[in-house]
What does this fold into?
Amino acid sequence: MSKLPIDVPKEKLQQVRMDTFRKVQQEKRTKKRIASVSIVFLLCLSFLFSIRVSPTIASQVAKIPGFEALVLAIARDKGIQDIVDNEYYEEINVTQSKNGLSLTLQGVIADHTGLVLFYDADASFDMSRLNLEEVQLFQGDEKIEGGGSFTINVDNQTRISSSVEYDFLETFAYTSKDFKAVFHFNDKDKGNIEITVPFTLQNKIAKEKIFTANRTVNVDGQKFTITQIRRSPLEMALDIEVDEANTMEILSFDDVEVVMQDGERRKSKSHPLYKNIREGKYTLYLQSNYFHDPESLKIIIGAVQAVPKGEDFIEVDFGTKEVLTKPDYFEWDISVTEQDVSVAIDKRAESRFLLLTNAVKEDGTGLEFKGATASRDEQYKIETTQFEDYDGKAKIYINYFFNPIGKNIELNIPLQ
It folds into this structure.
């Protein structure tokens, strides 16, 4: 039997998209709400709930201007669904145009750990060669340091519906709620196009919820302590310190999840680990459960990866293009060319990329990381890392290596 076609009411959804969110923000959910508003609200909410349930409906709704970026965010991060459900998503709906390019800032999610901009862009010209190169964010007239992460050109694009994510490494102070985002586009025919979109936040910025855990875990004689759990609308952070007496260098905590009370799992984010280089301090970032207040958290760590302490780096000479030393366990071929270091990882090996991004020169100063690429052939995954111009010796740290010392670790941490 053939499946019935799904008729998605695109025009109606487009009309009620943010009007519904605005009305929900202004009114409490009561039984006395006017029936028409309730129907519209339930229509939109049902579609948002269905995104993770029905890929077919998600793909259809994602084609509607103004919905696509939010749909994609909800599909990859369950914490964004909570933000929408709890009316923390803030509509902006400001449009600016320049040189035939029109950009609409649809909405914003802002907390003390980060800020996400959802936007659409259309043009009166062919957009297939239009690239977004940079997005600058200003609070008042002061530029916020660091760059936002975003998706660049997609082949044969006719419009753009996407988001820009700013992750603040330190708690951000909202001394002003007046912002502007400056989008820097480049088109091969029209050149550089700069569009500035001012916006003002109206919502009260949610306070971070901090819980002191001090839970020590012993894995094969190697100890680490979850010192605190910090929760904000955009992310959950687990702060971890490792024991100085450990004989192994912990490189990674893989596949970390938090299990909700209903069994749903909140997973590691796309930037799961921040580490103070060789200081033994980590922060693991997971999808947020900020709008839930469980009595305890069940944390699952899929694996702890570690190598012998003092054997977590390779040494190269960029001047002579030689590999000077490497750990005994490191069996893969390394080549040094110009300012690049390439490693050929056998596809049969259970390994993710090595992330050779941290390096120091002979004098102890940092060697600047410029970028990394990956390629594949029939037998190898080839990871190439580029550093700044330098013709001396350098120590390059291995930030990931598959060598699990513990797997499927479950922790129950009371929060009250």
